Backbone:
C-alpha cells in the first residue's frame, strides 16, 4: 500500500508540474522511479509513457473543448507527425539496446546519462534565453524533421517529451512560455500514442501490474487537472522560475541514477 501511495504521489506531482510547464511529467516520473528502484527499467519506461499519455490526452482535449487552446496547428501538426514516427523509432532503439545487453541496468544508465545531458542543456538555455536570438521556422518539412528527433528522444528516454520540447519551440518557433507548453503537450501526445501502439503491435509490452498502471494513470490525470488550473493563474515568469528549479532537481536525481546504475 505504501508503494502505491508513493507512486501515485510521484505521478500526481510530476503531472501537475508537467501540465504547468509543458514537459509531460515523464521527465520527473522516470528518473524518480529509477532512483527508488521499485520496478525494473523496462516497466518504468512503459508505465511512465502511459502516465504521460493519459495526462497529455486530458490536457489537450480539455483545452480544445474549452476554447482556450494555444496550439498552432500549422506548426504543431507537422511536428506531431514527425514525433509519431520518431516515437516508433525511439521505441525500436530502446528495445535494441535492451536486447544487446544481459544487464537490464545498462539501458537505464544510458537513459540517465542522456537525460542528464538534455536537462543540463535545457537549463543553460532557459537561464540565458533572453540573450539568444530565436527564429520563426515555417517549412513543414523542417518541422517534421524536428518532430522526428523529439519523438525519438522522448520515446527512447521514456519521458514523454520533457524539457527539450520547450527549448526547441522557444528557439525555432519563437513561442512564449505558455504557448510552447501547450504545443509541447500536443507533440508529446502523438509520440506517445505511436510508441504505445508500436509496443502493442510488436508484443514488446513488459509484464506489469494492472493496479500499478491504474494508480499511475489516475495520478497523471489528476495532476493534469490541477496543473491546468495552476497554469491559468501563473504568470509566464513564474512558470519559468518553476521550470528552472525543476531542472536543477532533475539534474541531481539523474546524477544519482548514473552513479547507481554504474
Residues:
Amino acid at each position: 500500500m505504501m508503494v502505491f501511495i508513493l507512486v501515485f504521489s510521484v505521478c500526481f506531482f510530476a503531472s501537475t508540474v508537467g501540465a504547468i510547464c509543458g514537459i509531460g511529467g515523464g521527465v520527473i516520473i522516470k528518473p524518480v522511479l529509477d532512483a527508488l528502484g521499485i520496478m525494473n527499467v523496462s516497466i518504468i519506461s512503459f508505465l511512465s509513457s502511459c502516465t504521460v499519455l493519459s495526462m497529455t490526452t486530458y490536457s489537450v482535449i480539455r483545452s480544445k473543448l474549452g476554447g482556450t487552446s494555444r496550439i498552432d496547428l500549422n506548426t504543431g501538426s507537422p511536428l506531431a507527425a514527425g514525433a509519431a514516427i520518431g516515437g516508433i523509432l525511439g521505441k525500436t532503439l530502446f528495445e535494441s539496446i535492451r536486447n544487446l545487453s544481459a544487464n537490464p541496468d545498462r539501458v537505464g544508465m544510458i537513459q540517465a546519462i542522456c537525460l542528464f545531458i538534455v536537462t543540463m542543456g535545457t537549463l543553460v538555455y532557459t537561464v540565458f534565453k533572453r540573450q539568444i536570438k530565436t527564429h520563426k521556422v515555417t517549412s513543414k518539412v523542417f518541422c517534421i524533421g524536428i518532430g522526428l528527433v523529439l519523438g525519438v528522444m522522448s520515446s527512447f528516454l521514456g519521458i514523454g517529451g520533457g524539457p527539450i520540447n520547450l527549448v526547441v519551440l522557444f528557439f525555432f518557433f519563437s513561442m512564449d512560455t505558455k504557448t510552447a507548453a501547450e504545443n509541447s503537450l500536443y507533440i508529446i501526445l502523438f509520440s506517445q500514442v505511436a510508441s504505445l501502439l508500436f509496443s502493442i503491435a510488436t508484443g514488446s509490452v513488459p509484464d506489469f501490474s494492472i493496479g500499478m498502471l491504474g494508480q499511475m494513470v489516475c495520478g497523471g490525470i489528476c495532476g493534469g487537472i490541477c496543473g491546468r488550473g495552476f497554469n491559468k493563474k501563473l504568470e509566464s515568469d513564474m512558470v519559468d522560475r518553476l521550470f528552472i528549479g525543476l531542472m536543477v532537481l532533475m539534474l541531481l536525481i539523474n546524477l544519482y541514477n548514473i552513479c547507481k546504475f554504474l
Notes: Residues 2-261 form one domain. The chain has one domain: 2-261.
